[in-house]
Each structure stands twice: as C-alpha cells, then as structure tokens.
Amino acid sequence: MFVLGIESTCDETAASVVKDGYEILSNVISSQVPIHKKYGGVFPELASRSHIEMIIPVIDEALQKANITLEMIDLIAVANGPGLIGSILIGLNTAKGLALALNKPFIGINHIEAHLYAAMMQNLNNMTFPSLGVVISGGHTMLLNIKDIGRYELIGSTIDDAIGECFDKVASILDLPYPGGPEIEKLASLGDPLKYHFIPAKPQKPFDFSFSGLKTKILYSIKGQNGKKGDKCLVSEEEKKHIAASFQKTAFSDLIDKVFKAAEMNNSKAIYFGGGVSNNQTLRAMVKNKAFSIEAFWPAKDLSLDNGAMIAGLAFHKFKNKFFGDVFNLEAKTCMPLV
Ligand code: KG4
Ligand code: ZN
Predict the structure, then answer these.
(1) pTM for the full model?
(2) 115 CA → ligand 1 middle, Å
C-alpha cells in the first residue's frame, strides 16, 4: 500500500511516499529556516506563504524520488494539527484537493502522534507494548504509556514551556540564531556542564515538567538578577559556553530521570523518543550511559524533525484500523490532544 504523507504544520513543507507503513520510498523536506532566521523564530504569515509556494514542488519531488505516479497512490494522508493554523491549512487543503480530484481515500493525522511513530517505523518487527513514548519537540513535552499504536495514556507533560521552546528561548538569550536547539548543543559541547548548578522546577505531579523557571534562571545568570532579554550581557563568551552546557545538562537530567521512573512504573518494554529535540546527540549519549535495561529507540535525523514519512507511516496503521478522514469536514486544528 503506497501512502502519500503531507506535513505543513509549522515551518517545514514536507511530503513522502511510504510503502506499508515502514518502507520510505522518498522523504522530501523543504525547510523555511532561512526565511525565519532574521526574526529569531517562526513568522506565521511568512510560513503560510512559503508553504503555498513549496507544497506542489515538494509533493512532485517526493513522487519522482519514489518513482511513483499520483495514480499509484492508495491513500493521501496529511497532518491536520496541532500547529500554526495558516500553515496547516495549506497542506490540508492540498491533500483534500488531491483526494477529491483523484478519488482516493484521505486521512488526517495528529502530528504529535506521528512524532511518536517515527522511531517505531524503523523497528516495526520488534514492537512490544506497553512502551513509553517521549515526545520532545518545539511545541510539546509529553510522557505517554503506549498500549498499542493509537492507544495512549498520558503520564506527564509540561505545565509551561515545551523543552524545544525552552532551548530556543535560551538560545535567543545567548544571542544564538534560530532554531536554537542545535546551536545550544554546539555551544554546550565546548563548555563545562558542572560549572553552574541549576535546579529544575518541581511541578506538583511527579511526571510533569516545568522549564519556564529554568529559562528565567539562565536569563538572570547572563543579564543579572531581574535582567531582561534586551539587556546587556554581563558574562564573557567563555562563560556562555559553561552556561549552555549546564542548562542542557539540567534540562536533560530532569527529563531522563522522569523517563526512566515512568518506564519502570509502567513496566514498559521499550522507550520511543520523538520530536526535534530527540536529535540531540548529548541527550542520546546521556540515555545510553544510564545502561538501563529497557531499550531506547530513536528516530533517524530526517524522521526526528518535522517530515512527511512519519505522517504516511502512521496513516497506514490508522487506515488498516478503519479510520478515514472526511474530505469535506476535516478541520485544521491548532490544538489536538492525543488522549
Ligand atoms: O519536532 P520539531 O521539528 O517541530 C515541532 O513539532 O515543534 O521540533 C523543533 C524543535 C525546536 O525547538 C528545535 O530547537 C529543537 O526541536 N531541536 C533541538 C535540536 N534539534 C532541533 N533541540 C535540542 N538539540 C537539538 N540538536
Ligand atoms: Zn513536530
């Protein structure tokens, strides 16, 4: 079964052809980073306009790379949320148009659920449940008990900033370019993670996260107590490296601690990481060094950031389980809870 997956929820225009839920025949991603860089974050209106320009060329390229014609596609899948409304609408309406014109089945996919599926699709033969799902992206931070594909139980989530959002904001405080996550990782690799002792916040529920206080702590460490984002930096370039390293270590230690406790509590048979932050090699090394008995699975780089392959892959399972989208009524959603 050939599935065309379309993704445009934020600042990547992406399309992919996936066979039977796991075999990636093409995975084309057009990043808008150069457009948004000068604004220090995603500029929603410019994101929508760029999606309009790129969506057809990206789909064309995905079909060409897969050596497949539109007529050979069995299902058209699209992320209909969560994300930026204007951005989602471009992918969604393109997918609807294709499905109607070609008279093909159509399905809407939750972008966050697709992030969870990304690490699974590389290991479909070894899938065991219950497993722990860890979504760490620019918009979400969640621990989920995965009972099966499509059956989840929320264990914990952030009560304020998402972890990726926190990385982006701390990067901006450090005058690093957008997107900040990879920049923090680079700078942190030059610093001493033990130089600063930052303490993660403790939300009331044991598996929830809070990153906003940590971000403010970094702000004050750099601009002085009660300093503001626009204020002058009071630390040297050398010191910034140590602050970046200590911040990264604090955020990841807090995450890993809760991940392993949640996995134990749930008798998880595997841990699946997903979302842009899972791309961080320091995080992967920290998890590996734990030598925990439960195996952790990570998405490949072009499956961890926003992509169409995870949309197409997950859609295969949804379709098999008799989920269909209504071309006339499926809506774009900025918020789309998984459970
Ligand atoms: O999953 P994603 O591509 O988009 C969302 O659905 O949000 O995640 C983007 C987020 C951004 O916040 C970005 O800074 C972060 O993932 N990110 C990283 C790294 N690469 C991307 N954070 C930390 N380390 C990285 N290497
Ligand atoms: Zn994403």
Answers:
(1) 0.96
(2) 12
